[in-house]
Structure formats: structure tokens, C-alpha cells
Amino acid sequence: MSKPSKQEEVDRGARAKRLLEDPTLVEAFANVRTAILERIEAAPIRDREGLHELKLMLKLLRDVRGNLEQAVSNGKIARLDIERERRGIRNWIGV
Question: What is the pTM of this model?
């Protein structure tokens, strides 16, 4: 897979930001997290495998959110790079 352009990074970051701010997705993340935590609390201590799987689910949920947050961050950096390049070109041509 080829590296995305800076504009593609900006666009991807904007989409990720909209997702992270979408009330439906925010609620879905919260509901899933709550359900996993409730299952962890209800699981018997002797069920190590079940507890391990639940903890993996919680980690994966955090990883999905983290992936979206990283896309937002990358988009912001790409936007700054684009703006800096534009200013540099304007300065170079005397505009």
C-alpha cells in the first residue's frame, strides 16, 4: 500500500474527527465498554481464559479509538505541513 498524500491524510483526519464526535458512535463506544466491564465484574475469578478474552476486547476497543485519534493527529500535522509549504512558495515567489 502506498503512502497517502498529505491531502489524503487531512481528509482522513477530518473523517476520523467527525466519527469521534458523532454522538451515535460515542454512545456505542461507551455502551460496549460498559458491557465488557460488567462482564468482567460478573466473571468468576477462576475463569482466567474468559477474563483474558474480555480484557482483550477492552484493549481492542481502546485500539480502535486510538487508531481514530491517531488519524486526527496525523491530519492536523499534514494540514500544517501543507500550510507551511504554501507559505514557503508564496515567500519564494514574492507574493
Answer: 0.83
| Confidence (pLDDT) at 36 | 98
Say which residues have a Cβ less than 8 Å from residue 11's Cβ, sequence separation at least 6: 75
Q: Are 29 and 61 in contact (CB under 8 A)?
A: yes
Helices (H), the chain: 6-21, 23-42, 48-93
Residue 80 and residue 17 in contact, taking contact as beta carbons nearer than 8 Å: no
Which segments in the chain show pLDDT lower than 70?
90-95
| Amino acid letter, 80 | L
**pLDDT score for 94:** 61
Could you state, in order of their start, the residue ranges of all structural domains in the chain? 6-93
- Strand boundaries in 32-83, DSSP class E: none
CA angle 26, 30, 33 (to 5 degrees): 140
CA 38 to chain centre: 24
Which residue has cell 465488557?
A: 36
